[in-house]
Structure formats: structure tokens, C-alpha cells
Amino acid sequence: MSKIKLIAFLAFILVWNFDSFAQQKQKVTLEDVFKNNTFSQKSVQGINWMKDGQFYSSLIRTPSGSKLVKINVATGEETGILIDGEALGVNFSSYAFNADETKALIASEVERIYRRSSKAVYHVVDLTTGKAQKLLDGEKIMYATLSPGNDKVAFVKENNLFIIELNTEKVIQITTDGKGNHVLNGAADWVYEEEFSMAKAFDWSPDGQKIAFIRFDESEVPEFNMQLWGKLYPQDYRFKYPKAGEANAKTSIHIYDLESKKTVKADTGTDTDIYLPRIYWTGEANTLAFLRVNRLQNQIDLLYTDARSGQSKVILEEKSETYVDLNYNDDLRFLGENKGFIRTSEQDGFKHIYHHDNTGKLIRQITSGKWEVTNLVGIDEKGKKIYYISTESSPLERNLFVINMDGKNKKILTPEKGTFSVNMSRDFKYYIANYTNSDTPLKVTLNESSGKLVKVLEDNQELKSKLSNFALSGREFFAFNTVEGTSLNGYMIKPSDFDPNKKYPVLMYVYGGPGSQNVTNAWGGARDFWHHHLAAEGYIVVCVDNRGTGARGRDFKHVTYANLGKLETEDQIAGAKYLGTLGYVDASRIGIWGWSYGGYMSSLALMKGNDVFKAAIAVAPVTTWRYYDTIYTERYLQTPQQNAAGYDDNSPITHVDKLKGNLLLIHGTGDDNVHYQNAVDLVDALIKADKQFETMYYPNRNHGISGGNTSWHLYSLMTDFIKRKL
After folding, report:
1. Of the listed 147, 596, 651, 711, which one is catalytic?
2. How far apart are CA 431 and CA 454, in angstroms?
3. In the chain, is it the N or the C terminus that has fewer CB atoms within a 10 Å radius of its CB?
4. Does a structural domain hold residue 123?
5. What's the domain range around 517?
6. Could you read off the pLDDT of 25-36 as tens digits, one per residue?
7. CATH code of 681's domain
8. For the segment 540-588, what is each residue's pLDDT rounded down to a tens digit?
9. Model-level pTM?
């Protein structure tokens, strides 16, 4: 080889090596996910549409304080500061306007209690003068709410309901019998908060002359006791928690008249073992509506009550042979001018929109088809249109549609494949869309109601640039048929350098509870990027939505009724067997992990599928439904007294003798939701069965097992277990 050719060849090698090095991408590390927050998204926080439709407000929080700014819809530009928290000396985290937007209620120093409940310091801000009035000298209160007349604030303190007159600062106490672990007025108890997604349990009448509230008498509800560690003598924390089959709080609805200072009790029927989870003012000052649900939750009644007398009448009832899921059909909206109400229901097999007149008579079913309406976005009564999110394009997608109230002229407004959530303006001229898909982080846009883009508010371009530096492979969606012929949806994340000629271990991720859905075309969070880290370490991560999950109709979801765990576990085992037939999967190294219901599923799958799964991680699992709360458990299983087999036949505790693989059991000792008791009893059963396993408890951590260094420690622990056992 000549000298010139040799120099040219060496130069080519150097350039080729440099290009190869430049093209190498980083692996996702645990530090990226849980220490550096490399993949955190930006969003647009605290958006509220203003009354004239030409502006919306947005809460901006910085290390130096918080401020509420006003945004021009037409230009997308900031036009002024509505509340300057730094100038007021108040670092507020939430706000609410009154009806005419002359005042705002802001909350600071928020102290979280359970999932949805909290107490805080509240200020009323006069938006014309900028001055702030601190309520009760800064004493922390709950659910402060301005009256329609702007001159009063209702709130809950120490389980009683109060009103404060803003001009005089006079405090009026509406109830006096509130007492911790006995009676709550205007605030939901633990189980309502957790399972009916409610915390505040009072509401002003439209004319501001009355307040309706729910009273919870939990005197007969058994107490649960958790020990809080960290002191010389651990502290007992006791709270009312009705486990399946035990006594619930006795609830009642009351209406306080500000002028007469008298309280009327609503007639809710003779049965006291019921749920009263929703109250609504219908638009008429003296008509209160409420929902009544029987203990087994297979019947929901809508009743109207005369606020002056408390007399009630049933307007509508819905029954089911299985259950009527309130949370899934929680879209009741009353129309103006006595034009009835709009609601959603699964009564035809899929969740759809219905229009009833004021007497409850059905006017028409507005949407129909073998797909689900997942969210009722808004009702434009003037334009006679309804905006909603649905799965019509695919169970994996969520798109915005508009339809006339007569059920005609349906149109998709967001045809892009992916997942949308929408915040519509009060005049229905604009909406703010939050959009993601499995390959695209959050994009927030301002749009005209026709779907036309006005402005991109956030596109996470900085995150996209970071992502381009990492070796990532997207979710691959797939479907397969079980032995029974049921088609199940799934996705997998492969290593970025995937070689179909190699054999890879698989980790399945499961939740699987009734109505849930993990297999969607949406961006993931930290947990998803942990899966990408595992893929970078040579694992394939797979998720399968079993029977009982959502977005595929009532029958697919309700098939697990009265026998939780059986069909769901069979489907996860079938999924693992299907994966084992793929040429690139090592069928001898398939694991499964999950959290909460998913922890229940993963531990049960390892035991019942001991010839399929090699390892499982169960985080905060339910190990027997006898230990879980009334509302959730009895909805799907009836009571233990009625259906003992449904509780015991598919409890992991029942199947400990089948354990052959590797189990890692994790729980927080401060879990107020799925109690640590679940882990203790499973451990005891495993010891009795002479089964070896691994376990970790996190002192005082709740169901989310987070805070400080906790997430890093938890996921490091699970990663190490997977590497050792798979």
C-alpha cells in the first residue's frame, strides 16, 4: 500500500470512528429517572377561563413566589398580573374566582391529609384593589368557598361547617356536633374520599341563601390503627376505615337557610345502609338534587328535594345485575330554563350520553356505538352542541368530538392519534388541549372550537432535544387471542439494540383492576422511563390489559364481577405463554410486577402461574379483599357474608403453597389505603408454608411510597432484584 493510500485509509478510519462515537446514544440510567428528573415534562398550570371568553388565567409558580396572570386568547400573550403573590407575601398554590371575577380565594401552606383532602391558609383577594384579607387570622381550614354574593365564605373546621362574613369577619357556626372519628359535617369521610372521588361535601345554592351539606356519622365504623415510627414510643394514628362487610358511616343531607338560620333534613328514604355521594343545585333556588346508591351499588337513584321542606321524590333510577359504577358515570349536568339534564350511562353496554327532561323522562340517547364516551367536556346550550372525549377511533386513543344535542352532525376535532384532554372556554369559542402519544411528550395548545390552532403554549421542545440523545425504543402495540378466544391488547418496549436472533428475558407490568387501562397511546411518566432503563439493560418490558379493564364496554369490564382475580390472572398467564412462543423471548425468564391491585395480580400470577413466571414484585398489594374498604370491594364482590368464596378463592394467601419462583414483597407501614396488614398476613402465610421470599417495608410511607430518597431507593431495590432473579 502506498504512503498516500495508507494516510487516506487511516483518515477514513478516524472519521468513521468519530462518526460512530458521535452517533452512540446514552442509556437511560436510574439516576436520570429518579435523581436528575431528566425526563420531567413542562406543562401550563392552573388554567381557568375567564367570564368574557377573551381571556384565561394561568398560575405561574417560581422559587421566589407565585403569580396569577391574565392571557389574551386571540394573541396568547400575557396582558397583566391579576394576583402578585410575592407582593402580597403569599406563596399560593391554588385559586378560585367568584362568579363576577371581582374577587379570588387563594390557598397557601397547604397541608395534605389523604388523597384529595387538605387544609390550608386562605386569603380573599379583591381583584380591583389588589388587597388580600386573611381568613381566621391564618388558621388552617378546609374547602373554603366564596358565596355567589361574594360577601361570605363557607368552610369546614374541626369537622363542623362555618360561614364567615367578609365585611364584618363575623363567624357563623352552622353545625356543632362535629367530632373527630365520630361526626363530620361538610367534609367526606375516608372511604367516600377515596372511592367516590370527593372531599368537599357542601355547596352554596345559586342565590347564596342556602348551603346544602352531607353529614357523616361514623360512630359505628370500626377504627383502624397505624403506628407512626420515629419516636422513642411509636405514635398511634387511628381513623375510621370500613372494611368489606363492616359498618359504614350513616349519611344524611341537610340544607341550612341563612335567613331563618334553620336547617332542614332531606328525606333520603327509610334504608340507612346506603350511600349519598353527590348533591347538586338544579338551578332553581329551592330544588336540590342528590344521588342515592344502595349498599351493593347495583342501583343508583336521582332524587329532587324541596329545600324548604326536605320532601323528596325519585326522578330517575338505574339498575344492573352487576353494579352501576358512579365514578364511571359521573357526568350529570343540569340545563338552564328547565330543559332537563344531561348524563352518561353504560346502560346499553357502552358509556354514552343521554338527555332527560326535568321529570326524568328520556328525551333521547345522544351518542351510541361500540365505543365509550370517557369525558363530557362541555354543553353549549346556546349552540345546542355537546363536546366530549371518546374512544371511537380506538380503545387506545382519546379524541375530542362535537355533536348536536339532537344526536346529529358528529365531528372529530382532534384527529391526531394519541390521547387528548381538553379545557373548554365558558363561551365554547376556544379550548386548551393537552396532547400526548407514546412517542410525544405533552403538547399544550390553544384552539378555536372548530379545532383550528391558535397558539402552541408548550411543546416540551427542551425535553424532546434531551430524548434525542438517549437510546430509546418506542412502545410497540400488539394484540393476541387467549385460549378462550378473547382478544387482549398489549404493548412492549424492546432494547434499542434489539436483535431478533437473541433470547431476551421479559418483565410484565400489570395493574388490571376493574375499569383501569394501561395500554394506551399516551406518554408515560417516571415508571415508564424505569421500564426504558430495564430495556437498556437487556430486558423486554410488556404490559397486557386483561379482562375487567376499561374502554372496551360493560361486558368486557363486568365479566370479573363477584370473582376478582380469577380471569385477570388467567389472562396475564396467557399473555406470558403467548410471549414465550415468540422466537426472541426466553420463556424460562418471564417476570411480572405491579402496584396496589397490580401487586395483588403479580403475587397471584406467580403462585397460580408457577410454571410460567420465574419472579414477581408485589408493591403495596391487596392480599385479601377482606381487608379492603366497603365501597370499592363490595361494588365488585358483594359483601364477604354474601360471597365468601369470591373473597377467598383468589386471595394470594390461599395459594402460598404454590409458590416456586422468586417473590419480592414491598409495602409502606403508613399506607392508609391498602394497609400494611395485607403484607403482614401474606408473610405469615408464606412462613407457615415454608416458602422463602424477599421483602422490604418503608417506615411511615403511604400507598405511594415516596418522599425524599424513597423512590430512588425503591426502584434501585427492584432493579437489583430483577437483575438477580431474571
Report:
1. 596
2. 10
3. N
4. no
5. 470-725
6. 899 999 999 999
7. 3.40.50.1820
8. 999 999 999 999 999 999 999 999 999 999 999 999 999 999 999 999 9
9. 0.94
